Amino acid sequence: AIDYAARVAAELGADVVKVNVPKFNAEKDKSAPAPYSTQTFTADDALAQVVQSAGKTLVIFSGGEKQDESGVVDKARAGMRAGGTGVIFGRNMWQRPMDEALKLAGEVHAMLKEYGA
């Protein structure tokens, strides 16, 4: 569904789209329409599909629910590896003490440099 939303945004002429990272629910996916009910996607496949569906529209992945520091960096790295343009984090930064948030922001920034962002 997230890849479809990215495609619709592109078709409507969006320059940039902010989307959630796709989540998987094996039981729910069985009742989804084809091809979603018959294909097995990895997290990386799903992220890449979102970027592909967006066409020339730039894709920014949101941070989603608060998680530990390594999870934040891993989620950002996965989005960039899939071809995303960037990431946007809210509660994963501002719900931490200032010193922790600054350290984490530095880690994400360093990772983004690996992708030329």
What do these coordinates show?
By secondary structure, the chain is mainly α. It has a single domain, classed as Alpha-Beta Barrel (TIM Barrel), CATH 3.20.20. Helix content is 50%, strand content 10%. The chain contains six helices and three strands; from the N terminus they run H-E-H-H-E-H-E-H-H. It has a three-stranded parallel β-sheet, covered by helices on one side. Helix 4 (69-81) links the parallel strand 2 (58-62) and strand 3 (86-88). The longest helix is centred in the C-terminal third of the chain and has 16 residues, at 98-113. The chain is globular, with a radius of gyration of 15 Å.
Produce the secondary structure layout.
Blueprint: H1 2-11, E1 16-19, H2 26-30, H3 43-53, E2 58-62, H4 69-81, E3 86-88, H5 91-94, H6 98-113
Parallel strand pairs: 1-2, 2-3
Helix pairs in contact: 1-3, 4-6
Strand order of the largest sheet: 1-2-3
State the CATH superfamily name: Aldolase class I
Structural domain tally: 1
Secondary structure class reads mainly alpha
* Backbone CA Rg: 15 Å
CATH class: Alpha Beta
CATH architecture term: Alpha-Beta Barrel
Q: Give the SSE order as H and E letters.
A: HEHHEHEHH
How many H/I helical runs? 6
Oligomer: single chain
- Indicate the mean pLDDT: 91
**Main sheet properties:** 3 strands, parallel
Low-confidence stretches: none
* β-sheet strand percentage: 5-15%
